[in-house]
Queue: 2 jobs
Job 1
Amino acid sequence: MNKISTKPIIGIIGVPTYDNEKDNTIAVYNESKNVTFQKGGIPFMICPLLNINYYETPLNKIPELTDEEKNIYEEMVDLCDGIIIPGGYRIYEFYKYITEYAIKKDIPVLGICLGMQTLASIDNNGNSLEKNEDEFIHTKTKVKYAHSVNIKKNTLLYDIIKKDKIDVNSKHKYHVSKVNKFKIVATSSDGLIEAIELPKKRFVLGLQWHPEKMIEYDPDANKIFDAFFEEINNEKQRTKEKIELL
C-alpha cells in the first residue's frame, strides 16, 4: 500500500545544464530546493526524458513531445501538490507542456524569472519576449536589491505583500513584453513587466525576480512562499476532510 504524504510535494522543473567536466546534467537550483524544504514541502525534480544534450541542442532540433512523453510528464505532475518553474537558460517544450498541464489541473504554480517567461510564452504562443534595453538595472547578480517594483492593488500579489512598492533582486537579459489571458500585476521602476498572474485559478503567479534567493533576508520574499504553501496545504486539508467523509 502506498503511503500518502502529509507534506506537500513540490515539483521543481529540472534545468538542463552541464557540470565542471562538461557532462550533460539536469539540475535543481539549491535555493528552490532549500525554500521548499524550509516551508515544509518535499522537493521533487521533474526531469526531461530524452537522451539528448538539452543545453547544447538548438531548440528547433529537439524532437516534439510524443504522446508517451506527455503521459509521463502528466504522471509526474499528478504526484505534485504544487509546481515551481525555476529560472534557467531556455524555454523548452517540456517546460511549457508541464506548465500548461498543471494550470489545466488547477495545481498551484509559481514561475520565477524564466518561469514567468514560460507562463507568458504559453499565453502568447512564444511571442512575448524582448531583450532588455537597460541591462544594467536587471542583471545585478551580487546585490540584495537591484530595483523597485510597483504592485497593483486588487491582485493576488498585493493581497500577499500588502504593499504597493517593494525592492527586489534581478538577473535577466530578456523581459515579457505582453500578455493575453494573464494579468500584469507589477512593473519595475523602468516600466518592465515584473509580475503576472492568472485570474480564476487557485494560484498561478509569475515573478521576474528571484524571491527564493532572498529568503534569508527579505520578509516579502517569505510572504510569497508562505502564501504559495498556504494554498497548497489548505487544499490538502480539504481533500483529507472529503476522504474522511466517504
Job 2
Amino acid sequence: MTTTKLIELAVSMKKRAYCPYSGFAVGAALECSDGSVFTGCNIESASFSPTICAERAAAAKAVSEGHTDFLRIAVAGSGPDLCWPCGVCRQLLSEFSPDGSLRVIAVDGNGRWESATLAQLLPRAFGKHSIRCDSL
C-alpha cells in the first residue's frame, strides 16, 4: 500500500469520529506486515477516561482479528498541527513493535505529513523486555 493511500484512509476515518466534547476528530489507518489495514477513529466519553484514541481503536481491531505485526500507522488530525500519537498510544503501539521500527505518519488538517519511527517518538520504551517475572 502506498503512503498516500494509507493517509487517505486515515483522513477518511475522521468523519466517523465521535468527538462532541473536544471537537477534534482523529482518524487512523494501521498497516500490518501482511498488507492488512485496520482503521479507527477517536471516540470520546463524557467521563473522559473511557475515551479511546483512533490509534488504539485501529490497534484493537487488528489484534482482535489476529494481527500483531504492525508495519505503519497514519494518524490524521483535524487541526493545523501534525497529529502525533499521544503517550498512551505510543506505549500501546510499542507492545507490537518492541524494536521501535513501526513507522508513524502524522498528518495535519491540511494534508501535510511527516513520519518518524516509534523508537524516535518513544525512546527507551517500557515493554515485555523490561519485566522480569522471575524476580517477583
